[in-house]
């Protein structure tokens, strides 16, 4: 069992704002310090319909030796499905889950719609050595067509489509100025295999500049 990193293994206190000092987690209650794997997180983001759900399963096969590819929507349920801007409970839960998975030694590639301001300000951000963002985007007409062609149970009406088109446009415009910047890749006329190639190269390239997924604790 891998313990939630917000919980001190010595006294059981649950930290609202986890603390890391010199590569160790530190309990604010009992001052216990313990090592953990502080790996990078890879956020494969972008608007719905740009290709994340298509790329994800193929990417998992390509990166099986190196990383865990996870779909964020599996937690979009119950109390986590709130109307608070940025959905902090949902985002925090995902960061905690990814951090626990990291303790097994492989970084997580999280497939889902997210932007840096929704992760970078959260207390759980401290669990990661860095979060890297790659956004799959599309030309508006192609994105609209894909979304409206989805099954009825996914509830893509005109209002919801327009919201996603606005996010698609915002992301392409603001990506370079976000903190950290977001890399953008347009999938409109790109074959699926080429999109998978690009995402795989992005992950492997970033990891090759570190000590790798099995880096020392902390």
Automatic annotation (TrEMBL):
Annotated protein name in UniProt: AAA family ATPase
InterPro entries, alphabetized: P-loop_NTPase
